[in-house]
Structures are given as C-alpha cells and as structure tokens.
Amino acid sequence: MVYQREFDQRLKVAAVGVGSHAYRNVLPALHHLPVRLTAICDVNEAIARRTAEEYGVSKVYTSTQAMYAQEDLDAVLLCVGPKLHAQLTIEALDAGLHVWMEKPPAMRAADVKKMMAHAGDRVVVVGFKKAFMPATDKACELAANEAFGPLSTISSEYPASIPDDGEAVLAEQQFTNWLGNGVHPISFMVRAGGKASGVYTHRAPNGGGAVILEFANDVLGIMNFSAWGGYAAATERYSLSGKNGSIVIDNTTRVSWHRGIPFEYSRTTSFVPPGTDTGSIVWEAQNRLATLENSGLFVQGMYNEMKYFCDHVINGQQPEIGSLNFTLDVMNIYEAALLSHGDRVAIE
Fold it and tell me: How far apart are CA 175 and CA 112, in angstroms?
C-alpha cells in the first residue's frame, strides 16, 4: 500500500460537496491516492470550513466558478447528487479539468450524452464501486480463464426496489431507491457482461422483482431485487456461470470458483476426489488482521475507483470502467427497466 505522502507525482484536486457521504467515504480514501487536496467547495460554508481545517486545506469556496477562476487545479471530485452532477461536470470540463464523480451520475441518460459532448480529451470516471470491487476484478479474471468456458449467464441479488410508475419517475426526474442503489448491480452487470441490447422488468407488488438483461454478446443476465430496506442481514450476491463452472461473490468479501468434480451418477462415492485441480476455490477477506485491504473503503471498491481515475489522469489514458460510455450503458439499462412492464425494451 502506498500512502499520499509517498507518491512522487500528485494531482492538484478540489472536492465539491463534502456532506455526510463524501466525509465518510470519499475524503478518507484520499490518504491513499496520488493527490493534493487544494480546495474545498460546498454551499454550506460552515461545513466546508470545518472539513478544510481537518484536512489542512486553506482554500474554501461556496461557488465552483469562483474556485476555478482562482485555483490551479488538475481535477475535481464531485459528490453532490445526480441532479447537479451533469451541470457541474460540464462546468469543470469546460474549465479544462478532469472529473471524478460519485454515482449516480445523472437523472437521465440524456444528461450523460451532454457530458460526453464536453469531455474532449479529459478523463471522466463515475464511482460505480461494485464495478471496481476487488471481488469483481477477480471474478472477471476467472471468467476470462479458458478453464471456465464461455460465459453464459450473470445474476445478482440486491436489496433494492423498482418503482411502479417508471414513466413518471423519468418525466419528473424523481430520485428513487432504484437510481440510488439500483445502479450498483447494474454497473456490475455491465462490467461483467458488456452492453445490453434488451431489458425486461417483472415487478412484484411490494416493489421487488426481477430485471432480465439480454447482452449484445448473447449472454443473459438477471437481477433479483428484494425491496427490503434493512441492512443488518441484507443479501448481496453476484454469480457468473460458464460451461465448466460458476463464480460467486458473496457480500463483496468472498469469491468462490466452483469448478466441479469428476462425477458419474450412481458410481461416484466422494465429493473430495484426490488432487487440487477440481472442486471449489475460495478467496475471502482476512479480518483477523487490521489491514487496509480488508476495510470498507477497499473491499467495497471506493479506493479502486478513485485510484483508477488518478492513474488514468497521470498516464494520459482514457478509462474504460466507469467511463462516460460505460455510464451511458448503465443509465440506458436504468431507464429501460423503468419503462418495461413485462415487455422487452430494446437498447440501441
């Protein structure tokens, strides 16, 4: 692990929006990134000043325009909510800055297209943490292994709900649980399966249900939503199935590759055949040690997504995961699921 003070090259960044979520998840991750927090901007000047004092930042603003006019920045970190992200992203891009923003990126897919029109050669990454989890990286690595065989299906289980009147949600730009949390499993599905070509939604009366995805590469996906709002025992699971086995992620901290065993019906007598080239392999967080890779910032993907952004800015490379193209794929699925009432909605 490299800490902020150990990097030879650091980006000059400003944080826009330092409310509860940013304070708990975004700012703490900066300790491990190649950045220098130069300025803080928030409409709540008192909170901005108290946060700036804690992080040793002398420049505080309540206006992004004033901040961009006075500060020499490389990038901006946005965490203000989807209703303002598009507007603030375009403003930052027009000021020549690279942009990282927390999910959700916008209220509509059309807003993402507007951002794309202003991006130019700037790096833009949206923090879809489920797409950046270490467990997701491992699952995608295993799925690409020839021993796994061609990917056939992807599934997810997540405690979120699907609104009944999707047309009204989109027309009125309502911020719902489906946008706030639904984009988590959607972004995982896009990372693992690629672009979707068709979406079906089957909604239960309590708001739960299933969203079926047809991917352009003929992989089929299904997202199961429980509509349960509790967190103490909330189930979160992702699985990828191939010709020769399956890969399962349980609650972000456990990855299992189920490879199967030599088996003959009515003849096989043991589930533990000799050798190590069959059966299941498991990777899981080692919570016995107070090491960083087992903390929420790392297991949940927050560190990975922000390090990915910084690395691509420093190296002058355009991102793939969490890019605006990736984000448009996520938002297209989000909207299509709202508009489908059991019928297939095509995604161009």
Answer: 16
